[in-house]
């Protein structure tokens, strides 16, 4: 970790820096930079803003004049969801047409990879039970609601 402390000195024409090393915390380096640029309006011809920004740099990329991103929050997620939905619809429509025309299938048989899609809810349930089952068992044991108290067989 590096910490740089800025000290305002209106008379410092050239900046000076001192390194204090890692005194109390290992791998923490502390520097003290004394310069007139640390003073409000010290290094610029522009007036000091009366309400400074709360975040340095004004936010994410984009490179616009305001410093803010030109993409509205959440728009990328919305676009991805729309693209995925269009992909699924295209997959099912083209698959159904091919299965109907080429293999002369009808009804439920026109669903591409029918066995996969019909077993998917059960596969998701099994995955959740496998993933969260040990966690639920641990919570029950910690709460004293069973899940680990067995009696010995005599």
From TrEMBL:
It is found in: Membrane. GO terms for cellular component: Golgi membrane; trans-Golgi network. The chain crosses the membrane at residues 75-99. The keyword Cell division does not apply. Residues 56-66 have a biased composition (Gly residues). Keywords: Membrane, Signal, Transmembrane, Transmembrane helix. Its main location: membrane. It comes from the Eukaryota. It is a single-pass membrane protein. Residues 48-68 are annotated as: Disordered. This is Cation-dependent mannose-6-phosphate receptor.
